[in-house]
Design brief:
The chain contains ten helices and 13 strands. The chain has about 325 residues and is α/β, with parallel strands linked by helices. The chain has two domains: about 5-95 and about 135-245, Metallo-beta-lactamase, Chain A (4-Layer Sandwich), CATH 3.60.15; about 255-320, Winged helix-like DNA-binding domain superfamily/Winged helix DNA-binding domain (Arc Repressor Mutant, subunit A). The strands form three sheets. It has a six-stranded mixed beta sheet with strand order 1-2-3-4-5-6, with helices on one face. A five-stranded mixed beta sheet has the order 7-8-9-10-11, with no helix packed on it. Strand 12 (about 305-310) and strand 13 form a beta hairpin. The structure holds zinc ion (2 copies). One zinc ion (ZN) binds near residues 15, 18, 69, 185 and 233. The site of one zinc ion has 8 residues, from helix 2. InterPro entries: Metallo-B-lactamas, RibonucZ/Hydroxyglut_hydro, Sec-metab_biosynth-thioest, WH-like_DNA-bd_sf.
């Protein structure tokens, strides 16, 4: 793609650097400006300077999803440039007030994790562990909320494709004329993103069904014509559909493994399955462990392969016998 620059911005997180893309075909467009650190600011400034631009000249900032390694310094760039901010409509509230979102999550997941069989002391530890990381993200106002099918003129036309699952409000940008797609963390070359459970974006008091949403959004990408994938981390993907299929296959295998564990132990709680799958999991990783197991149980429930019965406020899963014919 002409007039496209990829910049690797260091982050303080275990994922390593995050990709920031700059397009200069219609003014200056920045996709995912990176976390709110002085280093990230300087890296973006240096990268723009290489192309002959300054931060003050940024016209629009596109945010693929509301995770701080991707959007954290957006508001600082807006202050310096007056740039428009484009993000999915389901990301608007979370971007405007990330801390309120964090608190909503904590309140929701305390009773929910109990209902999944997690002991109270473990729930307390898991929910007290994460910090809001206020130093790496600043609230940002989305000026241009987008939904499926909306377009952005970045020199090349970018079509917005809603790709929830990794997180609600994830959007990918299809550059059909270039046979390419900016995928954020929806599709990544080296890791399969864990669709973490979170609270629904519409402020109803419900959790997301993250993994079923994620698989559906992966299948959406297979219907689009895009060979090259520009992800939020790692090198560009030269076979986007191939990588999507690998990711779907990975989850299919995991789902069958979870089905076997349910069959071996039924009736069983999600927490017991997580302990069986990941016996050594440290408390810091338990929320993603629970997200993974519950995601696969959601998939099995959608296929009518499990029965869920509540006992003393705790959900127990049983595998239904496969019916022939
Ligand atoms: Zn992410
Ligand atoms: Zn990321």
């Amino acid at each position: 793609m002409d007039q496209l620059t990829r910049t690797r911005i260091p982050t303080p997180f275990s994922v390593g650097s995050v990709n920031c893309y700059q397009l200069t075909g219609n003014g200056v467009t920045v996709v995912d400006p990176g976390p709110a650190t002085d280093e990230a600011y300087e890296v973006v400034a240096d990268s723009l300077a290489t192309d002959g631009y300054e931060i003050a000249e940024i016209d629009r900032i596109l945010i693929t999803h509301p995770h701080m390694d991707h959007f954290g310094q957006a508001s600082r760039l807006v202050e310096a440039s007056g740039a428009d901010v484009v993000a999915h409509e389901h990301a608007v509230d979370r971007l405007a007030d990330p801390i309120a979102h964090f608190k909503r999550e904590q309140a929701y997941f305390r009773p929910f994790l109990r209902s999944m069989g997690m002991p109270t002391d473990a729930v307390d530890t898991v929910l007290e562990l994460p910090e809001p990381y206020t130093e790496y993200q600043a609230p940002v106002t989305v000026t241009d909320p987008v939904a499926d099918g909306d377009t952005v003129d970045a020199g090349v036309t970018l079509e917005c494709v809603s790709t929830p699952g990794h997180v609600p409000g994830s959007v990918s940008f299809l550059a059909a004329a270039e046979d390419a797609m900016f995928t954020g963390d929806h599709v990544l070359p080296d890791i399969t993103p864990n669709p973490l459970l979170t609270v629904a974006p519409d402020a109803t008091d419900e959790r997301t069904r993250s993994l079923p949403a994620y698989i559906e959004a992966l299948e959406t990408v297979l219907e689009l014509e895009a060979t090259v994938g520009y992800g939020g981390h790692g090198e560009p993907m030269s076979d986007l559909h191939g990588r999507v299929r690998e990711t779907i296959d990975h989850h299919e295998e995991r789902k069958e493994h979870v089905a076997e564990l349910v069959a071996d132990a039924e009736p069983v709680t999600a927490y017991a399955i997580m302990k069986e799958m990941f016996p050594e999991l440290p408390a810091t990783e338990m929320f993603s462990g629970m997200s993974e197991v519950i995601g696969h149980l959601d998939l099995l429930a959608d296929e009518d392969r499990v029965r869920i019965t509540e006992r003393d406020g705790v959900d127990h899963y049983e595998l239904l016998e496969p019916t022939d014919g």
